Amino acid sequence: HTLSLFYTATKNWGKYLQTLRKAEAWVEKVNFEEASFLFQALIGEIYLDLGDALQEVQESEEALIGLEKVVAIYRKMGRLYELGKALNNIGTVYQSLHQWGNALASYEESLKVFEEYDTGQQELYEQSAFSLFEYTHVDFLKAQTHQNMGALYLTLRKFDLANDFLQKAHAGYTQFPETEELASIESNLGR
Asked: Residue 119 gets which letter from DSSP?
């Protein structure tokens, strides 16, 4: 799995996918119920990355299968941060398949999960080595979900709704001014 991250940096999607497939084959041999909490989280991360890789190479249907595994894993584990991220990713896959209703439902569920994270999970993550990253990054992921919803509404020519969600995304991204997403939002708001 760690090796696969090198291939994302080089944008070698074929090697990235090939390496993740090897990790998936290895994970398939593990009894999930008997695995440690950290190993269960790694399994979820492998499936999440696999879903992303499949989407990059235009294998959306297969990406959905992997991402649905991720959602089931993170629901079972109670990992709201990762669950919200996976639901947002599922929304982008549905959007690429022009399944607008499914995309919107996934984005809405993602936002609900992030709100639940904000109200309850932050205390749990304060005990974690990743607490600061996850706590600040959840705002980025919410902004990303708002951006995806805004783009979807632009596609559907529902400009008032698109503007509302793009404004929310813009407000969220201003915490991260170095991101390219902020420029993208400003471009979409200028339409």
From this structure: I
